[in-house]
Specification:
Layout lengths: L1 H17 L4 H17 L5 H30 L12 H19 L1
Helix pairs in contact: 1-2, 2-3, 3-4
Keywords: Membrane, Transmembrane, Transmembrane helix
Length: 106
């Protein structure tokens, strides 16, 4: 439960600060969705947390990839070193995240 609160708070702040979602909307996405899942019938706490962890993990992984792509295109600072990562590889990683989540859910 403690890790859920930490990751949920981190995700809420990511939505609020990075994606400019209002604070109440970010809090709802991070904390309201697990509560709704519990209320509609997912009664096993570990199962709910595991399911939500899969979804949040995929969201977070995809967000990190998208942030990387945006920083490469919009960044005005010359980095000390640069990674040459093909866009196809980034999209492939996003697909792997989604397929991994689908395999765990199904």
């Amino acid at each position: 439960a403690t890790s859920f609160l930490i990751i949920g708070n981190y995700l809420k702040n990511t939505f609020f600060y990075d994606y400019k979602i209002p604070r109440w909307g970010a809090a709802f996405i991070a904390f309201g969705i697990p509560l709704i899942l519990f209320l509609i019938g997912f009664r096993q706490f570990i199962g709910v947390i595991g399911f939500v962890g899969i979804i949040y993990g995929v969201i977070e992984g995809i967000l990190i990839i998208l942030i990387f792509k945006k920083a490469k295109t919009l960044g005005d600072r010359q980095p000390e070193y640069s990674l040459k990562v093909p866009s196809a590889l980034l999209y492939f990683l996003m697909i792997i995240f989604i397929l991994g989540a689908a395999s765990q859910i199904l």
